[in-house]
Amino acid sequence: HQSTHSFPTRRSSDLDGASTRLITVVRDQPIEQPEDYQLAEIVMDKERQLVLAFRSFANPQSNASEPRLIESYSYHELKTNVDLSESDFDIENPNYEFP
Q1: pLDDT in the model for residue 5
Q2: Using CA atoms, how far apart are residues 26 and 6, in angstroms rounded to an integer?
Q3: Under a CB-based contact definition with an 8 Å cutoff, are residues 12 and 21 in contact?
Q4: Residue 14, SS3?
Q5: How many Cβ atoms sit within 10 Å of the Cβ of residue 56?
Q6: Which residues contact 22 (CB under 8 A, 6 or more apart)?
Q7: CA-to-CA distance for 98 and 78, rounded, in angstroms?
Q8: Which of 67, 1, 73, 14 is nearest to 42 (CA)?
Q9: Beta-bridge partner residues of 41
Q10: Higher pLDDT, 31 or 92
Q11: Could you read off the pLDDT of 21-70 as tens digits, one per residue?
Q12: Cα separation, 46 vs 20, whole angstroms
């Protein structure tokens, strides 16, 4: 079990019109897997309490000084409570387009 520490920063900004808070998570113990993260950044919508962006970084490779970006996701135009039904997730539904 590896522990982490999460530090809400004082930095707030605006993303797609939403007031956000950046949360940085730093592992306090070395990572075991080369592609595991050492540091992560999470951008939260303050009002809706939704994740709007996520980035994770691994330790730098050899002589590099900057952490390596290993994952990056951002979500735009999020809509909640859009009245989905069971048929929206039914693979027999001709409008279902998930592979």
Answers
A1: 41
A2: 7
A3: yes
A4: strand
A5: 20
A6: 8, 9, 11, 12, 13, 41, 42, 43, 44
A7: 18
A8: 73
A9: 24, 55
A10: 92
A11: 999 998 887 777 767 888 899 999 999 999 999 999 987 777 767 888 89
A12: 5
